[in-house]
Each structure stands twice: as structure tokens, then as C-alpha cells.
């Protein structure tokens, strides 16, 4: 049984934690990279196990039957391992764009993000969206340019694209030596050494790294780079002359991104990336709660729920609330306060998540994520703390891009339908809106994409025994008015629909961004936001 740590130990434990999410467009190699990080972290004995686990989960899970049918990942979890004195927590997120809301929420719990870019494809739409969320939260973003073992774009070209499209200064931490089947290593700009790779059995094992210290144009380094020497020296000279210098402050605020090159598939460059990333990435930083700054070490236990997931384990029909610990130490049996309801709760039944596996948790620290068995008490955004005045800003709501109207057929099933929808909305499966006048007959569901509606239908049927019938609505954008808004102005509007969100905030649904642009042009006092409470972003960090 764990006991309270002394202040020194507590600081050491918290400082060594690194909690991050990997953001990328589907197919950039997130699963492959995650797997290799686990391999280097000793959490996997052989590569391939994550995919194997995915397959095993497909074989046993039932509501995740949908994952199997579609070959997509709907659910996500937390992965953790120890590496170089660090405790690493990877917040795993589903890959498909339709579930990006889940990823956005998870980013609220991360202290940094790894942005994975396919060397041939550059910045893709999903990466751009996720990067925007990271930038709003001002968390540091570290870029890993993947698939260097294939012929991709010129590294300078990728740098330029990131700077232009994502608006971040790029500082390469290393520079690739060779590309495609000739990709043989990296030059580390900070350590001033060349690192070449060999072996690795095409990614199933750790690669061998050979280090040659020296400036790029030194004889030893030039010789080791062989036919690529001139290109590399030229590229590095360009960077030294015209490139930005690394600035820890700019990295911390997300204005500058350190960039690494490698191949997750062959393991080339993964180990040096992991080492350097863990050195540079921040541990848990102070967070703002109700106007106060909560220091992760000095303040006793507190945290917030960023995700709720039901039926992760088909053998136990339970709900797990994912709690990001923001300060202090968690000890099994801890007595704390559920701030929203003001009720004291004892955390006796908590679990540490590792993919689909769970182990009972005895102690955890700021930076860690624990799973709380949830009898229906928690909502996304809830704070747990020992003091009433603490309240971490809720998880922002992100504007859905697809809307459907709920068709309520018989009165008999209506109650079950309403209960099911309300619970799944609480879990964040979809968002709920309604017409200002009218009951559940006027319910509108909002999602990022059609797969989210499919999950909703599937779960309503398997868990609540009700069929959900939906009809299409023509809207694809939502905005929340912050000022200059009168619902009466829209009474006869055909292209813009006024609705209420689940917290009774006014929201506007439109068929295109052109509609909002025109509206804003005509009404100068109107202020529209992409989220009901934009201040949540500022106070989340
Ligand atoms: P995701 O989670 O981001 O969607 O991507 P995932 O890791 O599943 O990788 C997508 C595809 O890209 C996979 O190929 C994977 O093997 C490949 N890949 C990942 N990293 C690298 C890399 O560094 N170099 C190269 N050349 N390929 C890479 P697939 O054919 O779709 O699947 P599989 O047959 O390999 O399982």
C-alpha cells in the first residue's frame, strides 16, 4: 500500500513525467511509431504486438465490432513505460478523422504533442486541424518526419510547408543523410555528431547506432556520410545561415517546433528522437483553475476528467472516466471532492490503463492518467480536488461538421431513446443540440463525421435496445455567438438555423462558411466563436 511521498520525492516523481499525444493524418505511421516507442521503452518485447493486440481486441470486443467491420480504431487508451529515468505516458487517440473530437479532448490532457508527418505527403488536413488545437492550447509540438526510408519530398520543402501552413518556426534537431532505400542516418545538429544506423531486422528489433563525432565537414564525418556528404553539408550550411535558432521559450509556447527525421518502420532515428524529445519536452506544467495557478508539485491532489468510455472491456459492462492528474499524488483510497456536485468521494476503485489491459493502481502522480470506474457520476470536464474553489476549466466543445435530426417514432421507446442519447452524449460520443421550441422531437445530433453517428446507432441498439433513426440536415458548420446576437433576427432565415446546445447556449448552424462570412459582413457587432466558451483554451494552460 502506497503512502504519501515527502516533498523531494514528490517533485522528482512529477518532474520525470512526460505526457503527450501523437497527432497525425491517418496512415502517416502513428501505430508504427507508437509500437516502436513501446519497443524502446521495454513495454513490448517485439514489434508487431500493438497490431496483434488490435487484432485480439477485434476478436473479443462486441461494440467494437464496428472497428472490425470498418478496420478503424474508434477507441483509444493510455500507454506508459519507463525510459531514461522518465515515466512516459502516451495518450493514444483514434486515427480516423470522424473521431477527431475525441483527439481534441485528449489533447487537453497532454503536456506536449508529437506531430508525425509523412515525408512524401507533407502537411495533411487532419494534421493541420490537430495542430491548430495544440496551438490554441499553446503546448509544445515536436515534429517527426516519418517514412524517410521511402523517397519523399526534400527536407527543406517540408520545413517550408510547415512554416507556411502551420505558422510555426521549424528548427531541425537533426538532418537526414540519404533518403529512400539509401537513408542511412542523421546528423545531430545539437550534439554535433553523425549517427548512422544498421541492422534492426527491418524494424522488429532495435537498430545498431554508430556515432561519429565532429562538424559536418570534418574528415571523419564526411567519410562516414559517403556519397551524401556534399548534400548534407550544403543543407546544414543553409540551416546555420538562414535557419532559426532553437529557443526553449518559443518551443514551450508552440511557436517553434523542433524537427526530427526517421523511419518508424525500420526503426531508423526512433531511438535518438525519443531520447532528445524526452529531454526537451516539458513535464507537467502549472495549470490555471478558476483564476488560480495550480502548481503540480506544491498543490495537493487534483485532476480533471477528459474522456469517458463505456464497455471498453466486453466482459465487464462498465464505464471508465479517464482522469488526468494535474497536481499532487494519487493514493488508492484517496478521499477527494467531486467539485461539480460538491460530494466527497473515495477513490478506491481505480485502474491504470495500458492499452486494453488494466491493473489496479496504488499510487500515481501529476502527469499520469488513471481510469476511474464510473457508476454514472462523471461528466467530461469534471474536476476532482481537495478544495471547493478548484475547478479546472472544462473541456471545450469543438464545432461539429455533420448534423442529423433524431426521428422519434413511437412513444413507447422514446424514454429509452432519450436516456440512451443523454448518456452517450455525456460520454461525448456525439453532441446534442435542440430547437429552442420542442422536446426530443427536435433533437439534432452533431458529429465530426458519419462514423460517429454509426457508433451512436450501434451502441444505442446493443446497450439500450433502441433503434436510432436519423435524417440528414444540410448544415456543416456550427458557431457560437459571443456578442451582438438576437435569435429573432434568424426567424425567417433559410440557410442559418438557430439552436441551443446541451448547456443551453445559443448556437448557429450553417450550410457553408460563406453564410457566416455574409452574416458577419452585414452585422458588425456580431461575434462568432468556434466553441461556446473560447476562454477555456486560455485557462487550460
Ligand atoms: P497510422 O496509425 O498513422 O494510420 O499508420 P500506421 O502505423 O498504421 O502505418 C500506415 C502504413 O504506413 C503501414 O503500411 C505502415 O507499415 C506504413 N509505415 C509506417 N511507418 C513507415 C515508415 O517509416 N516507412 C515506410 N515505408 N512505411 C511506414 P500498410 O501497408 O498500410 O500496413 P502494413 O501492411 O505495413 O501493416
Task: Describe this entry's structure for a reader.
With 541 residues, the chain is an alpha+beta fold. The chain is built from 15 helices and 31 strands. It has 3 domains: 20-77 and 95-282, 3-Layer(aba) Sandwich (Rossmann fold), CATH 3.40.50; 288-385, P-loop containing nucleotide triphosphate hydrolases (Rossmann fold), CATH 3.40.50; 402-540, 2-Layer Sandwich (Alpha-Beta Plaits). Residues 54-63 have low confidence and may be disordered. The radius of gyration is 24 Å and the shape is globular. Bound molecules: guanosine-5',3'-tetraphosphate (G4P).
Brief account:
28% of the residues lie in helices and 30% in strands.
Structure keywords:
3 domains; 15 helices; Rossmann fold; Alpha-Beta Plaits; 541 residues; eight-stranded antiparallel sheet
Amino acid at each position: 500500500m502506497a503512502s504519501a511521498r515527502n516533498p523531494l520525492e514528490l517533485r522528482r516523481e512529477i518532474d520525470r513525467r512526460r505526457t503527450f499525444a501523437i497527432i497525425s493524418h491517418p496512415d502517416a505511421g502513428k501505430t508504427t511509431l507508437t509500437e516502436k516507442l513501446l519497443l524502446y521503452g521495454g513495454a513490448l518485447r517485439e514489434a508487431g504486438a500493438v497490431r496483434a493486440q488490435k487484432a485480439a481486441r477485434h476478436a473479443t470486443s462486441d461494440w467494437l465490432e464496428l472497428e472490425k467491420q470498418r478496420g478503424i480504431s474508434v477507441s483509444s487508451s493510455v500507454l506508459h513505460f519507463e525510459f531514461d529515468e522518465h515515466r512516459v505516458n502516451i495518450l493514444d487517440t483514434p486515427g480516423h478523422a470522424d473521431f477527431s473530437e475525441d483527439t481534441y479532448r485528449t489533447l487537453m490532457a497532454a503536456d506536449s504533442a508529437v506531430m508525425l508527418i509523412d515525408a512524401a505527403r507533407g502537411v495533411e488536413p487532419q494534421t493541420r486541424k490537430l495542430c491548430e488545437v495544440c496551438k490554441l492550447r499553446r503546448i509544445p509540438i515536436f515534429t517527426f518526419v516519418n517514412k524517410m526510408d521511402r523517397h519523399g519530398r526534400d527536407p527543406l520543402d517540408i520545413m517550408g510547408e510547415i512554416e507556411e501552413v502551420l505558422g510555426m518556426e521549424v528548427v531541425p534537431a537533426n538532418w537526414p543523410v540519404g533518403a529512400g532505400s539509401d537513408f542511412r542516418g542523421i546528423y545531430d545538429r545539437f550534439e554535433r555528431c553523425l549517427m548512422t544506423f544498421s541492422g534492426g531486422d527491418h524494424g522488429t528489433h532495435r537498430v545498431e547506432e554508430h556515432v561519429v563525432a565532429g562538424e559536418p565537414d570534418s574528415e571523419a564525418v564526411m567519410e562516414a556520410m559517403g556519397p551524401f556528404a556534399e548534400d548534407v553539408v550544403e543543407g546544414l550550411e543553409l540551416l546555420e545561415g538562414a535557419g532559426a535558432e532553437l529557443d526553449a521559450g518559443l518551443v514551450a509556447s508552440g511557436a517553434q517546433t523542433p524537427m526530427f527525421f526517421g523511419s518508424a518502420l525500420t526503426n531508423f532515428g526512433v531511438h535518438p528522437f525519443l531520447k532528445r524529445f524526452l529531454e526537451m519536452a516539458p513535464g507537467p506544467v502549472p495549470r490555471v483553475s478558476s483564476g488560480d495557478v495550480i502548481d503540480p508539485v506544491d498543490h495537493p491532489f487534483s485532476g480533471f476528467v477528459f474522456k469517458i468510455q463505456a464497455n471498453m472491456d466486453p466482459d465487464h459492462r462498465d464505464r471508465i472516466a479517464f482522469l488526468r492528474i494535474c497536481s499532487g499524488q494519487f493514493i488508492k483510497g484517496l478521499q477527494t471532492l467531486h467539485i461539480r456536485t460538491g460530494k466527497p468521494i473515495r477513490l478506491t476503485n481505480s485502474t491504470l490503463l495500458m492499452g486494453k489491459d488494466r491493473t489496479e493502481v496504488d499510487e500515481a502522480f501529476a502527469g499520469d492518467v488513471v481510469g476511474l470506474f464510473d457508476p454514472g457520476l462523471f461528466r467530461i470536464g469534471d474536476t476532482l480536488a481537495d478544495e471547493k474553489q478548484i475547478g479546472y476549466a472544462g473541456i471545450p466543445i469543438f464545432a461539429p461538421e455533420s448534423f442529423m435530426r433524431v426521428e422519434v417514432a413511437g412513444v413507447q421507446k422514446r424514454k429509452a431513446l432519450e436516456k440512451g442519447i443523454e448518456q452517450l452524449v455525456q460520454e461525448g460520443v456525439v453532441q446534442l443540440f435542440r430547437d429552442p421550441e420542442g422536446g426530443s422531437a427536435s433533437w439534432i445530433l452533431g458529429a465530426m463525421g458519419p462514423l460517429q453517428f454509426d457508433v451512436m446507432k450501434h451502441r444505442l441498439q446493443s446497450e439500450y435496445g433502441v433503434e436510432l433513426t436519423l435524417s440528414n440536415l444540410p448544415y456543416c458548420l456550427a458557431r457560437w455567438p459571443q456578442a451582438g446576437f438576437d435569435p429573432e433576427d434568424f426567424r425567417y432565415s433559410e440557410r442559418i438555423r438557430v439552436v441551443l446546445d446541451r448547456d443551453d447556449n445559443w448556437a448557429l448552424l450553417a450550410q457553408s462558411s460563406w453564410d457566416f462570412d455574409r452574416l458577419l459582413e452585414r452585422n458588425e457587432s456580431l461575434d462568432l466563436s468556434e466553441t461556446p466558451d473560447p476562454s477555456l483554451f486560455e485557462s487550460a494552460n
